[in-house]
Amino acid sequence: MERPVKPLVNRPVLARRAPEISDGALVARMCEGDTSALGVLYDRHAKALYTFLSRVTSTGEAEDLVQITFMRAGSLADRFDPARGEPRAWLFGIATRVAQESRRSIVRKARAVFRSIVAPVSIQESTKTDVVRALDSLSEAKRVVVVLAEVEGFSCQEVADMLEIPIGTVWTRLHHARGDLRAFLERGAP
Amino acid sequence: MSAPCARLWEVEAERDGRLDDDARASATRHRAHCRACREEHTALHSLGRRLADEEGPAWDALAQKRLRGKVLAGANEARLRAPSSHKRVAALVAFAAVMVIGLVAWKRAPKGTPPAPIASIELRDEGGAIYERATLDGTEHVYLRAGTLGIKVRHDAVTHLLVHVPDGEIEDLGTTFHVSVHGGATTRVSVDEGRVLVRKANGDRDGRLVSAGETWEPDPALEKASTQATVATPIPASAAPTSAVVLRGPSPEPKPALTKRTVPAASASASASASATVSAPAGSAVHPPSEEDATYMRAVSLLRAGRRDEARAAARRYVVLYPNGLRRQEMDVVAE
Lengths: 190, 336
Ligand SMILES: [Zn+2]
Prior knowledge:
heterodimer; A: mainly alpha; Rna Polymerase Sigma Factor, Chain: A; Arc Repressor Mutant, subunit A; 2 domains; about 0% strand; globular; B: alpha+beta; Jelly Rolls; 3 domains; twelve-stranded mixed beta sheet; 10 helices; binds zinc ion
C-alpha cells in the first residue's frame, strides 16, 4: 500500500550527511516537508534551547517548551527568511516567545493541542548556584536579554530583532540586568 | 557614590556595540591609562564569563531522544493529516495559536498581566479586536493581532504606550485613535485627537500627515510594489499631542521585519533634517528606538555634525527627561 507521504523519523541518510548541511538548508528542506531535517536541527540546537529555556523560565517546564519550540519551527519553516539572520537566532526567537507565552499560561492550552504529556521536572532550590539564583532574581524581561547576549552570545541587534524591541531597550535592560547581577553576586542580594 | 571616571560608561557601551570604530579605539587607548575603566572592563568581562560558563541543568540523553521522537512524530502526523497542503495546515495551526493567545489574554485581561495597567489608557473593542495588554519596564504594550481597536490615551508625561500590529508598531504620546488589522496587515489608522505622520521609507521623504478627523490607509499600489518599511515620525513644533506610527513591511512571525532606522524626533522642537542625519549603529536591522534613545541619538548626531549649541540643548533635554537614563553621564558631559 502506498501512502502519500512517508514518515521520515528514522531515515538515516540525512543524519549521516548532517555535518555538511547548513542550518539554512535544513530549514529549506523542512519547507519541502522533509521532517528529518527538523530532526537534524533538533540534534544541533535542542540542548542549547533546553538550557536557555531552563534559565529564562525556571518553571521546570523547559522540556515541554523545547518541544513546542520545534513544533512551531516545523510549522513556521516556510516563513523563515535567511536574509534576516541565522536559523539559530530564529529558533531562539521562537523559544523566547514560547517562554513568554508559558508565563501567561497559554502553553498549557497549546500542550493539549500537541497532545504532549511530559512530567515537569523542577529544579531543586538547594542545588542552584549563586549565578542561577542571581539570574532568577531578575525580572523576566531583563533575564531574557542578559542570557541571550551574555550566555548565548547574540549581538544586541540580534536580540532586538528576536524580541522585536528597540535596540535601546536591549541596552537599557542589559545595563540594569548587569547592575542587579553584580549587586546580587557581590552582596548576596539585588 | 560618584563615578571614579567620567568615561566609565564607555566600557559597557563598547561591550554592547554602541561605539563606532573611532570611539572604540579611543576607549581602548584611554583604558590603558585609566585604572577605573580597566577594572570595570575586567568586571564586566568576568560577569559575562561567569554567566556563560554556568552549566545548564542536566538533561539526560534518553529524555532528549524521547523528545526528539515526539517532535518528529508530531511533525509527521501534521504532514500525513494533510499531505497536499502542509503549508495551509501550518498556517491554520499558527492562526489557531494566535486565536488561543488572543482569547486567553482577552479572558484574563483584567488580572492577567502582573503590573497594574496604566489607568489613563482606555482600549475599546470596535469590532473583532484580538489583543493583549501588558506592562513591561514601565511601558504599556498592546498587541493587536486582528480587528479594530479604539485607543484613548490621556496626555500624561509618565504614560508611554506602544501598540504592536503584525506589520509594525504605533507609538502613542497622548492622543485618541483607532487601528484596524486584517489579514496580518494594518489596514487603517484614524485619528480623533492629536496627529501623526505616516512615511514610507522608500524615498517618500515628506510622508503623510494624519490629523484629527483624518484616516491613514495603505496605498494598494505602493503596498504591492514594495515591501519597504513605512516609517512615521511625530510632527515637530506642535503643542498638540503627537504619535509616531511605524508600520513595517510584512513580517512573518516570529521573525521581525528588517527596518531602516528612523529616529522619531522626541522633542517638540526637533527638526526633520536633524533626525534624518541620525544613522543606525553597526548592524543594519534596527527597530524604531524608544523616546529615550531618540533623545539621546539626536544629541549625539548634532554633536557629530558639529552643531555644539544644539547638541548641548538636546543633551540638557535628555538630562531633564531621563535623570536616571542609561546615558545620563554621557549627556551630562555634552550638556556642560
Ligand atoms: Zn576611565
